[in-house]
Write a structure and sequence with these properties.
44% of the residues lie in helices and 18% in strands. The chain is of the alpha/beta class. It has 2 domains: 218 residues, TIM Barrel (Alpha-Beta Barrel), CATH 3.20.20.20; 88 residues, 2-Layer Sandwich (Sulfite Reductase Hemoprotein, domain 1). The radius of gyration is 24 Å and the shape is elongated. The strands form 3 sheets. Strands 1-2-3-4-5 form a 5-stranded parallel β-sheet. The protein has a 5-stranded mixed β-sheet with strand order 8-9-10-11-12. The protein binds iron/sulfur cluster.
C-alpha cells in the first residue's frame, strides 16, 4: 500500500514503481477525498500494475475510483450506512468489471463498541457479518468478490480465516492490521499468514508495518518464499548462530557477504559458518559455503571443499564461485 499523499501524483507513482520492483503484484492506494480519486485516475494512466482503491465511508469515492480505472475496490460494507449506496457501488463495479474486496475487521464488528463482544464470540460474529455482506452482493448479482477478515491478533486471524475458507468459496486476501514496526510486524505476520498459506488458504497477502512499504513487500516475499510459493530470484543467506567454537566475527563477515550478495540476481543458497569443524556438515545443502576459522576460511561448492583462502579474499572468491554455479 502506498504511504504518500495520493494527490502527490509523481511521488505516488514513484512509490508504486518501487513496490513493483520489490515484487508487488497489486498496489493499494487510499482515496479518502475527491481530490484523491482525481489523482488516482492520473496514477492509473502512469503505471502498469493493477491498482486497488482503498475506500472508507464514501460510496461516491468508491464509484469515482471504479470509473477512474481501479482494478479492485477495497470496501468494508459496514462503513457504508445506506444499502442503496452499497448497491450503487456494486452496480458501478459490475458495469466496469471491477472486483470488490469485502472486508470485515475485528475492531469494528457490530456491537463491539456498544456492548463489548467477548473474544471467544468474535470469530463467529465476524463470520456472520461476512455472510451477510456476501448475501447482499450475491443478491445484487455480483460475485467478483475477494474476502478479507482482519485482526491485529495472529491467532484470531488464523481462526477467522480458516472459518471463512471453510464456509465460502471466494478468493481470500490475508493480512494483520496494525502489526507494528517492521521488526515487530514480521513475526506475527509470518505466524498468521504462514500458517494459513501452508494450509492452502489465501490468494493475496499484505504485511502491514509502519515505515517504508518496500519493507512490507520484502517481509511478505520472505514468507511466500519460505513456503515455496514464490520462486527465489536472489540468494538466500544462511548464517550459523555461532557458539563456543567460533573463532572469527561471524556477524561482521555475514553482513559483508549479505551486502555483496545484494548485487547477485541468482537464486542460490549461501552459507557463512563460524568454524571449519562442524561448519561444512551444517552447511551441506548450501550451494556455496564459507566455513571460517582464524584468519582464513575453507570454501565449499555443493558440499565439496574447493579452496582454503585468507580472510581478505573471502568475499571476492565467494562471488567468483557463485559465477560458476
Ligand atoms: S558452524 Fe561451528 S561455530 Fe557455527 S554454530 Fe556450528 S559448531 Fe558453532
Amino acid at each position: 500500500m502506498t504511504k504518500v499523499p495520493t494527490t502527490d501524483v509523481d511521488r505516488c507513482v514513484r512509490q508504486v514503481r518501487r513496490l513493483v520492483r520489490a515484487g508487488c503484484g497489486l498496489v493499494r492506494i487510499a482515496v479518502p477525498r475527491r481530490a484523491d480519486t482525481i489523482a488516482f485516475a492520473q496514477i492509473v494512466q502512469k503505471v502498469r500494475v493493477p491498482l486497488i482503491a482503498d475506500v472508507h465511508f464514501s460510496a461516491d469515492r468508491a464509484v469515482e475510483a471504479i470509473e477512474a480505472g481501479a482494478a479492485k475496490v477495497r470496501l468494508n460494507p459496514g462503513n457504508i450506512k445506506k444499502q442503496e449506496d452499497i448497491f450503487r457501488i456494486i452496480d458501478a463495479a459490475k458495469m466496469h468489471r471491477v472486483a470488490m474486496r469485502i472486508g470485515v475487521n475485528e475492531a469494528s464488528i457490530r456491537d463491539l463498541k456498544k456492548d463489548p463482544v467477548p473474544p471467544e464470540k468474535r470469530t463467529a460474529l465476524m463470520l456472520d457479518e461476512m455472510r451477510s455482506y456476501i448475501r447482499l452482493f450475491e443478491g445484487r448479482g455480483f460475485d467478483q468478490i475477494v474476502l478479507s477478515a482482519k485482526s491485529s491478533d495472529a491467532l484470531r486471524t488464523i481462526e477467522v480465516n480458516r472459518a471463512i475458507a471453510e464456509a465460502f468459496g471466494y478468493p481470500m486476501h490475508l493480512g494483520l492490521t496494525h502489526a507494528g514496526l517492521p521488526a515487530d510486524a514480521s513475526i506475527p505476520s509470518a505466524v498468521a499468514l504462514g500458517t494459513l498459506l501452508a494450509e492452502g488458504i489465501g490468494d493475496t497477502i499484505r504485511v502491514s508495518a509502519a515505515g517504508d512499504p518496500v519493507i512490507e513487500t520484502e517481509i511478505a516475499k520472505s514468507i511466500a518464499m519460505s513456503l515455496g510459493l514464490l520462486e527465489r530470484t536472489r540468494p538466500e543467506l544462511i548464517v550459523c548462530p555461532t557458539c563456543g567454537r567460533t573463532e572469527i566475527d561471524v556477524v561482521k563477515l555475514a553482513k559483508q557477504v549479505d551486502k555483496a550478495l545484494r548485487k547477485v540476481k541468482k537464486p542460490c543458497r549461501v552459507a557463512v559458518m563460524g568454524c571449519i569443524v562442524n561448519g561444512p556438515g551444517e552447511a551441506a545443502d548450501a550451494d556455496v559455503a564459507v566455513c571460517a576459522g582464524r584468519g582464513k576460511a575453507d570454501l565449499y561448492r555443493h558440499g565439496q571443499k574447493i579452496a582454503t583462502i585468507p580472510e581478505p579474499e573471502i568475499i571476492p572468491r565467494l562471488l567468483a564461485t557463485l559465477e560458476t554455479l
